[in-house]
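Q: I'm writing a short explainer about Phosphotransferase RcsD for a general audience and would like to include a description of its predicted shape. Could you first generate the structure from this sequence?
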Amino acid sequence: MRTLNQLKPNTLTRLYALFLLFMVISLFLYAYSYFDTWLDSKKNAINNTTLKFSRQVEDYRYHSNQLFQLSNKITDTSMFPVLRLNPIKLRSDVFWLEGRDQTVDSIIFGKPNEQTFQLAQRFANSLEILWGVRNDYSSLYYLNGKGNDLILITTHSVLKPEIRYKESYLTLTAESKRSELLMQSTALDEKESLSPIRKMSTENIYYYTYRIMFNVPGQLTSVVAFDLPINNFLPSELSPHYLRLLPTGQQSVYDKNNIEISTDGSSLIFSQPIIGIPYSLSYEYPMKSIIKEIAYKNIWLLISLLIFISISVFGHIYIRNKYVFPYISMTRNLRIKEEMTNDIISNLPIGLLVYNFSSNHKIISNSHAEKLLPHIDLSKIRQMAVEHNGLIQTAINNEIYEIRTSNNNNIDNTSLFIFLNKDNEALINKKLQLAQQEYEKNTIARRKILSNMSLELMRPIKDINEMVYQFKELLPEDTHQQLLSLLLEKTNYISEWIENITLINKLENQEWKIHKDEFELSTLVESILITASPFMIRKGLTLYFHNNIRPGLLLINDGPALSKIILSLINYAISTTNYGKITVNLNLVKNKDKEEILIDIIDSGSGLTPQDIANIKYPFLGQAMGDKYYSNSGIIFYLCHLLCNKIQGELTIKSQESIGSHFQIALPYQHIDTEERTFNVLLEGINAKLAIKNPEIEKIICQQLDKYGATYFDKNRENLYPEYDIILKDTPNDNPESPTILLMSSIVGFEKISKDLIKCNYNFGDPLIEAITYLIEENESFSLDTTKESIWDENNNLDKYEVILNNYRKKLNGSDYKELFISTVPIDVEKLHLEATNKDFHSLAQTAHRLKGVFAMLDLEYLRESCEYLEHDIKNHNELEIKERITQLDKWIQQLLQQGNN
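A: Of course. Here's the predicted structure. Afterward I'll give you a sentence or two in plain language.
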């Protein structure tokens, strides 16, 4: 084990890699040798099969000649006496001769002819000698050139149980076999041929067909075809599925080594010519089958290799974890500790020395101790320290040092020396005390200066403000009023600045105390925004106030302090935004098992500089940004930060150049009441129609209407609601047809334009409620009953169905797509009826979707929704609902087209 501990970290890995390399090389050599042996076995099997093919072809070439000669001599009755036959008629042109020993049967195709029956029986007797002792499938097809009859001699067993049905696989394929043989008989230049290797569809029998033609002057060519099986002489190494007979065009001389090996894609092909005929035998072996065969034959070798490799891997891991890794970890930790120790010792402000008196050499030391070594005697100091409990004071180079010593128990005769310069320590302590005293004096002086300056300036500024107000009363001219207003803004700015300085001094001196009371948060924020709105309107900015808290939510905190924070940040956002919008979000969120109030102020201005953001902790560090209307102060962020901390909140400022700034105030929220506070639903029973294009304005209005209990609908999405009390829109309309509120942010409250039109700020709930209430009271004639009566009279006392139908007729008559509607929609409705009858749900869904697109294009909302419901029923295969909806659609289309044609 000591040897393993002394190994280098990478030695074991290198040895293991070398071992694996030797094993891979050995495995490769074995695989190469085994594959070479496997190739030789395949070559021998191919060679033996080729020889058997050539011998079989030679045998049946001889038998074909004998049978042809027999067919020419059958007319000689002296040599071949007439046999007594009893042919069985299967069909009008098919006859069966049962074999003598019931092993070979004859079938004759053609007109009944005694000479043909005699020839078929003679063929059967001859082939029974050849095939009778075997148990293989073999067949002979003889196309007689004299009478063009086809004789089938076969040992196929499937014929016998099917005699009663007069049909079999062989009898049904006779006509195709006759056509094939006739086509072969026309090829006079080819006397004999081999067909590709085939597989019988009913059995696992592979065979090929040997054909030979005999030409006799004055008659048609006679064809002899043998279906010869190959299963009986194939070796076990070869599968008949991969064997191919390919024509080569020339005969070759026998050479057992003349086996060509090639590749085709992922297959290995063995090919060898067949002796005596212009064909070659090809064996196409897929690589997948090769790998499977080799793996199966070497399965135990592979399993043993896998087990051996697994054992070696786990052994390698065990040795590394048990011996190598601890050594590496220990070495690394020792090196790190040594480097840290040296770094710490070299940066100590005192002298440190570890000295071995037995060998008289330094073990550890730093630069401070090195400077003192030439001037001291360590043995004497050590002896003196032992007498005084390890601590002495002495003068070294006219400086007083305190020296501590201690002995090391692990190393004999070794001591630790610590040198502390008492003169430098006393000097440093004295400087620190003076610096602390000076800092405290400066802080107190700054606070007193700012406090006194605030007190001295506040009175004159107030006097100036009072005089400005008096001048405004005495000088009514517009020019004087404008100058005095500007002067009043500047004096108010100075007054506010002085108040902020005073408040910062109180916050820093812990003189300011928080005054908690209950107030409604949304009302507080809304009042602040109403105060800041004139400044936004003057700069042309748009305000969006998203109040996402529930109505009547109370907050226990210092309301005036929170108001000052919010108003200061909004004024800062206004001054840094030249154009665009300012968004204020009010949310109640649950974060880490506690609820918080989040007030987000987001502007689209030029953003804040790093100096501006740094003012949150260091006031007046950078010049604050401003505009021509308002000058910011470098203490605003610092003051807001202090106030947020006092009211247990948190202020976060994020900004990006040319994009804008994001101020977020997070305040803790505590539930005041155990039950939800009641809230007056002031707009209950009022139905409003929304025609708002700006999505942010629409969101704010929907929040306000939900908050105060009104119902509403969007005219761009819902067309089936003709009854409403009021319209809310954000685009101007000089001649409104019904009571209308024009939503904008350029006014603070609401402003009456006419009897039917009022301008109103959409951000604030109270002006919006007052505008809606005032407009409805002024337009009582537009109540719900009157609206119903007017619609009734306008549409000739029609019901709601007729109102919608008349509306759609007007849209259709005034649309450019009227002709398209007339030419396509009725046809599609007829298709719906037909496809629903045939239950063709796929085509039905496509037609319904196409109709839905047409109705959506014409803004026929009710018909479009009907198509959507129809698609849902088609998806669920609800046949009754589908037919009902198609009938309703058909009724609508007929009435629309009837009016359109009129």
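A: For your explainer, you could say: The first strand starts at residue 88 and ends at 91.
Q: Perfect, that's easy to follow.
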